[in-house]
Specification:
364 residues, alpha+beta, nine-stranded mixed sheet
C-alpha cells in the first residue's frame, strides 16, 4: 500500500507541530504533499486546493478524519519539520537507487530567488547517469559554496566516481577530500586561481596542442550544431611542483563551438584533474557537469516553478526545495518518451497515476 511505503520512507522525521495543530495525521500531510509536488503544485494554497479537489481519492489512501487539510495546515507542517531530518530521509532513499552507479557527480549551486530577503542558496549533487539529485546542502548566511561543498561531499560515496565542480570549488582542501574519499576530480579553472589558470593556459598556448592526446565530438539537435574538442596532457611535473595541488595528474583544454542558424559562439575552458590523460573521459565528464544546469536547475525553475515559488520561511523554503527534488527524481525515473510536464499533467488529472509513480519509485 502507498501509505505503508511512505510511512517507511518518511520514518525518522519527527512531527514537531504544536499539539493543537496535529488534528491531521503527519504521514497523510506528507503523502499529499509529495503527490501534489508530482502534479506541479508549487504553493501551500495549491496543496490546499489539491487536497480539496482530490479528497475522495485521497481519503481512500490516507487517514483524513477532519476533511481536506487547508493551506495553513501545510504551511505549519513544513515550517515545523527539521530540514536535516527531511533531507536524511530523502538522501537515504535516493542512495538506494544510485548505489550501483559509477560515473560523474556534478556539484553546483542554485539560488531559490523568491525565498525571502536573503534568498536560499543550495549546493546540489547531481548524478547524470541516473538522472538523480543525490543530496543538497544549504549555504549558511554570510558564507559561500566553499564551506558547503565539503559538507555535501562527506555525505556521498565517491569511490570510483568523478566529481566535477566549477571554479568556485577549485580549492586544494576540496581536491584532497575527494581523493581521500576514493574519488577523482575534474575542476574548472578561472581567474580565482590566479597563476594556476594562467600557467595551464600558457602551457597549451606554448605547446603545439596537435601533439597532445585529443578527442572530439559533434552534437546536432534543437536547431544547433555543437563541436567540442578536448586536449589533455599529463607530463606536468613542473606544474605539480610549482602549485603542490593534491592528486593532480593531468590538465585539459576544451574548445567548444556552437552554431545556431548563422550565429557562431566559441569558448575555451581549462581544467585540472586527478584522472589520467584520457581525453574522451575528461571531455565527457566536463560535458556531464553542465547537465546539472540543464537537467536539474533548469527543470526545477521551468517545470517546478522554483524561482517564483513564494515560500520564504527558512524551514519551509528548504523543506519544499527537498520535496521538489524528490518529485523530480521520481519523474525522471519514469520519463521515457514523455516530457516531465506531461507526466505532471497526468499526475494532476489522475490520483491513480500519481500513486503509481511513487509505487514504481519504491520498487526501482
Amino acid at each position: 500500500m502507498l501509505k505503508d511505503g511512505l510511512t517507511q520512507v518518511f520514518d525518522g522525521i519527527t512531527d514537531q507541530r504544536s499539539s493543537r495543530n496535529q488534528k491531521h495525521p503527519f504521514i497523510s500531510l506528507l503523502g499529499i504533499s509529495l503527490l501534489g509536488a508530482l502534479s506541479g503544485i508549487d504553493s501551500f494554497s495549491g496543496l490546499g486546493d489539491y487536497a480539496e479537489m482530490h479528497f475522495g481519492g485521497l481519503s481512500k489512501i490516507f487517514d483524513l478524519p477532519h476533511g481536506a487539510p487547508s493551506h495553513d495546515t501545510f504551511q505549519r507542517l513544513f515550517d515545523a519539520i527539521e530540514p536535516s531530518q527531511f533531507h536524511d530521509c530523502f538522501f537515504k532513499f535516493t542512495q538506494q537507487l544510485s548505489r550501483v552507479f559509477e560515473g560523474v557527480i556534478a556539484v553546483d549551486g542554485k539560488t531559490v530567488r523568491n525565498s525571502g530577503p536573503n534568498p536560499l542558496h543550495i549546493v546540489n549533487a547531481w548524478c547524470e547517469a541516473n538522472q538523480l539529485v543525490l543530496a543538497q546542502m544549504c549555504v549558511e548566511d554570510k558564507s559561500n559554496e566553499i564551506t558547503a561543498i565539503p559538507l555535501l561531499l562527506k555525505l556521498l560515496d565517491l569511490h570510483n566516481r568523478v566529481v566535477t565542480i566549477d571554479a568556485m570549488g577549485c580549492q586544494r582542501k576540496i581536491s584532497a577530500q575527494i581523493i581521500e574519499q576514493g574519488g577523482d576530480y575534474l575542476l574548472n579553472l578561472k581567474g580565482n586561481q590566479g597563476r594556476l589558470h594562467d600557467d595551464v593556459g600558457s602551457y597549451f598556448t606554448e605547446r603545439n596542442k596537435q601533439s597532445c592526446p585529443s578527442w572530439e565530438e559533434f552534437d546536432k539537435g534543437h536547431g544547433r550544431l555543437e563541436h567540442r574538442k578536448c586536449y589533455v596532457i599529463d607530463t606536468i611535473d613542473w606544474l605539480c611542483e610549482a602549485h603542490q595541488w593534491p592528486g593532480l595528474k593531468s590538465i585539459a583544454m576544451v574548445e567548444s563551438e556552437r552554431t545556431i542558424k548563422d550565429k557562431v559562439e566559441k569558448d575555451v575552458r581549462y581544467y585540472i584533474s586527478s584522472l589520467s590523460a584520457d581525453p574522451e573521459k575528461i571531455c565527457k565528464a566536463a560535458r556531464a557537469h553542465w547537465a546539472v544546469e540543464n537537467k536539474c536547475h533548469w527543470r526545477l525553475d521551468v517545470v517546478f516553478n522554483e524561482d517564483k515559488a513564494c515560500i520564504s520561511n527558512d524551514n519551509a523554503a528548504e523543506n519544499m526545495s527537498i520535496m521538489r527534488k524528490w518529485a523530480l527524481n521520481i519523474l525522471n525515473q519514469k520519463k521515457g518518451k514523455s516530457s516531465l510536464k506531461s507526466l505532471q499533467r497526468k499526475a494532476c488529472m489522475s490520483l491513480k497515476f500519481a500513486s503509481t509513480l511513487i509505487k514504481d519509485y519504491f520498487h526501482a
